[in-house]
Amino acid sequence: MSSGKAISKAVIKRLPRYYRFLGELLRNGTVRISSRELSERMGLTASQIRQDLNCFGGFGQQGYGYNIQELHEEIGRILGLDQRTDVILIGAGNLGRAVANHMDFDQRGFRLVGIFDQSPELVGQEIKGIRILHTDELERFCKARSPAAAVLCIPKTATKAISDRLIPLGIKGFWNFSHYDLLDRHSGIVVENVHMSDSLMTLSYEIKDLMEKDE
Question: How far apart, in whole angstroms, are the C-alpha atoms of residue 215 and residue 210?
Fold first, then answer.
C-alpha cells in the first residue's frame, strides 16, 4: 500500500533491512513492537522509522505498536517478494557459481530459471539443478521463457555488450557484479550495481579514522 507520492531511494533501500529485522523478531516469537524498540535494535530513530513506514500508509496503532507478522508481510508485498520474477544469471565462474548456490532467490522475490556462460568447460554442467547454457542460446531462451531480470557475473569489458543484447530481449532489471557501472541508459530499465570492493574500502577508511582518533 503506497501513498501515491514518489518514494525516495533512501527509504526504498531501508525496506529490506526492516524486512530482515522483523523476520528475526518473528523467528524469536515476538508478536508486536513499538517504533522506539525497533529503533533501538536497528540503530535508527523512532521518528525515521515512522516517517519511512508512513510513506506506504499507516501500520502501527498508538499505544500498541506494530503487529510484526502483518508489517513483515506488508513490507514483503511492497518489495514484491510475493511475485517471483524470473531471473537469469550470466557468468558461471567462481562468483556466478557462489551467487547461484548461496543466494536464496525464491525468498527474495525471484526465481532463477537459467544460467549462461561462454566457456566450453562450463557449458553443460549443472548448478542447483540448472544446466549451464552457452550465451549463444540467450535469444532463444529469453524468447521462450521471458525472464525480466539478469544477474551479471561477467568481466567488466563484457558488461555493456551483454546488457545491450539483453534489453531488447525483455530484461528490465540488472543485478550487476561486473565492476562496470552500468547506467540506466535505457527508459524503463533499473540497475543495482554491486561493488563489494567499495564496501571493503569504506571499512578501511572507517578503521583508519577510528585509529587516528585514538592516537
Answer: 9
Give the integer Cα–Cα distance in Å for 107 and 103: 9
**Per-residue pLDDT band at 2 (split at 50, 70, 90):** very low
Quote the strand ranges of the chain, DSSP E. 32-33, 66-67, 85-90, 110-117, 126-127, 130-134, 149-152, 173-176, 190-193
- 15-29: per-residue pLDDT in tens? 999 999 999 999 999
* Alpha-carbon gap, residue 215 to 158, rounded angstroms: 46
d(CA 152, CA 164): 12
**What are 73's three cell numbers?**
508481510
Residue tagged 511475485 (cell numbers): 83
CB 128 within 8 A of CB 75: no
Predicted model pTM: 0.86
